[in-house]
Structures
1.
Amino acid sequence: LSSQTERCIVSLMHANNEIGNLLDIDAVGNLCKKYNAIFHSDCVQTVGHYPLDLRKTPIHFISAAGHKFHGPKGIGILYVNDNVRIKPFIFGGGQERNMRAGTENLYGIVGFAKALELAMANQEKDSAYIQSLKTYMIAQLREHIKGVQFNGDQEGRCLYTVLSAAFPKTERSEMILFNLDINNICVSGGSACSSGADIGSHVIRAINNNPNLVTVRFSFSKHNTKEEVDAVVAKVKELI
């Protein structure tokens, strides 16, 4: 940033959706403020799961999606700080403060707002419960799966909703995503967005390009149980 002659934009994920690592957005925001840069953060994984005070965080934009905290699919938000001005991409009507023409998705907006209200009302209790499931699964995988590794800062600054595990590659483990799927266990090899893809994860290649490991991304919610974790670990042990 210090070498830029023109004002630039910094766009970073608050939390990586594959390995879960969390970004210190306050530190990045202060750095951007120091160098007069515009800061956007993709907070899709964290809105509804972590308390964010945008009055105190030095940030210009954040984006979020309702389905990440049990709201309706197809609805999201863009927060725009009062200190920055943007131009609309879609022109026509004056909806959404002249920023996005077209009839609003009223049901989605109401659903998003209510889901966020409920998520934050129970955030402290739910986050502690979900973290306990993740911690338990890490312990169970270490106990039952020889050679298991974990991608990212899983026991540090990391999403409590995501666990990226890497298993030793064998003839059996190479088919683990397919075999878990046919056993009604929903996982992915990278992001949930690419759960049906077979091209591998660019994130995993960047941090741990080990051809002898097979990565599986597990995710957790308040609706999961310890018994489900036990069932998944038992099935993974059977399939590895």
2.
Amino acid sequence: MAVPEQDTQVSTLRKIITSELEPLARRFRALFSLKYLASLQPPSEQTVPAIEAIAAAFSSPSALLKHELAYCLGQTRNDAAILPLRNVLEDEEEDAMCRHEAAEALGALGDMGSLELLKRLRDNKGEVEVVRETCEIAVDRIEWEHSKQRKDEQLKQSDFASIDPAPPLPQAKQTPSIPELEKALLDTSLPLFQRYRAMFALRDLSSPPDLPTAVPAVQSLARGFSDPSALFRHEIAFVFGQLSHPASIPSLIETLSNTKEASMVRHEAAEALGSLGDEEGVEDTLRKFLDDPEQVVRDSVIVALDMAEFEKNGEAEYAIVPGTSEPIAV
């Protein structure tokens, strides 16, 4: 009896993503192929095996890979992703960057059953700050997701399909101006969830890149790199990676070049630059950090250069796994 092609595909991708002998960039491409299968709506018979394949790679020593695994699981809209994410979040021996991403992913899944865990870590003063802050946002997101407020809000259709840590601010009769959104973005007296809502509202004003509001909104977002929270600065870099707007390049290079910056922020800046790989000088800049003292930064640069190559070659999807005969379209 012939093995179904999809079964073979998931099995092959699982072998790639869990093998420490595979190049990191190839494992990332396998991950995004699995993410596509894991996120199918409605779910297919490949959905749970793909989720299990992603979760199996949490045994890797690579903090960068595990961080990305958690992110992808949070985008699946599938409860099968909850348990492995909780396990990562509860593991105090795990890298804080991975635990933060697991908390954020549980928030993205809107899992009410994780509220007790998230609140406990949020309220634990001895917890790592980035984990505590992420749990705060995740709690607010889950409670918002299941609230009457959510049902009453009108949200602008976004160009981005991602499930974000916070939704953009709701539509109002009078759209907030960019200076008003920037004020909320930078106001450290506001809850992080509210500031993130301003962040994603500014993101949506930056896309498509030829919008009259795009460059001013990107410039407002870039001012977020001065925030005292490493988590917040990391999210600014992530948003810039989504936007791939050339106006973000100077602030991303400055962030990556700052060796005093938190590694989780620098790594995100490197990956964001990878999404801008077809812009002049970006690849040369990234190559300067291939020998960076921080492992997660070095690894991010490797992945970013692979992304840059993908951008330059005009490939259809980054999820294509090099060397396989049939690429997965996402």
3.
Amino acid sequence: MTVKGLHPDIAADSPDLLRQVHGRRGYALSYHRMFQAHAPELLAAYDAYYQQLTLRPRALADAAKETVWIALQAATREHHGMIHLRRAEAAGLSRDAIADALAIGAAVETWTVLQFGDEYWRDWTPIEAAIPRYLRMFEASTGSVPPIAAEITAIVCHAARRTHAGMKLHLPRAFAAGATAAMVAEGLSFLLLPAGGPCLIDAVQAWADASAADPSLPSPYGPSDLENPAASS
């Protein structure tokens, strides 16, 4: 499949920086080439940022990371993200596991229908009755995806779609399954590319609100005097 704006090959005499960008990814994007032509310092800074964002190991194992990416790309309808399916295979995910990642993204989208019922038909279909039904659909979608990866994937997809009530439902489930704050933070950080900074602002605030309402949940900001005034007393 050919995707406009994604260049698997570049000219042999391309500038060194663009060749490095291409070499790290196996492709160059249209905006990489534009930055090279008009803002090479920006391309260098962006390349360093991208390496830290997703190429270098952080808290998530590669299989979990690519599970999140696949579902997130689907949630934001970003077909340019085919590279993550290839990276998923390189990380050991089978075609069935890749399909499970996509299914989690689909299950998350059922939340908006159930929320509609609560908003307009609450006397008949309150969200309290919808939640166990939603969770049954979610759990059926996870297939072979380990619980930590499945819950973080759902958190990130809800964040991308700004269904923060659904995101807050999955936060305690993720931590109960063994996720760390660093894992959740890594998953949410991926929002920057397909969903943008404002979406990430809202997602982190939703997590902070959930932590404030339930102090047993880790804070996105880590333990600090600002978050815990008693710590300085």
